[in-house]
Design brief:
114 residues; five-stranded parallel beta sheet; four-stranded parallel beta sheet; 0% helix; 44% strand
């Protein structure tokens, strides 16, 4: 669990300018991801394998990625690799949409609730 933390102006060479996670469950609560960048995927948060991430009351803004998921990019073996609850994702230039890729045949990879 990561709580009330600011990830500001971080850079990564491959992915996850602010945070990279693999093979774990992560709960992010009341965090801010601002102006993080990567030439890869997930300007703010990236998980290329086996992670499940819950974003709760977070702000993800102004992050950039060269490949996909300017703010968030998750590819996981979890059925629902990420959930956004009361979380703002804004001011993220293309490629901007959060990407969460569940296993083949699964549906609803991104869940949002307020």
């Amino acid at each position: 669990m990561i709580t009330a933390t600011t990830f500001d102006h971080n850079r990564a060479g491959v992915g996850g300018g602010g945070l990279a996670a693999a093979d774990t469950k992560v709960v992010l609560t009341d965090d801010t991801f601002f102006a993080n960048a990567t030439p890869g995927s997930g300007g703010a948060v990236s998980s290329p394998i086996a992670a499940s991430i819950l974003f709760l009351n977070d702000t993800i803004t102004g992050n950039t990625a060269g490949v996909q998921g300017g703010g968030v990019s998750l590819t996981s073996t979890a059925i629902f690799p990420c959930s956004f609850q009361n979380t703002i994702v804004a001011l993220t230039p293309p490629p901007s949409a959060p990407t969460c890729s569940p296993p083949s045949g699964s549906s609803s990879p991104i869940t949002a609730a307020t």
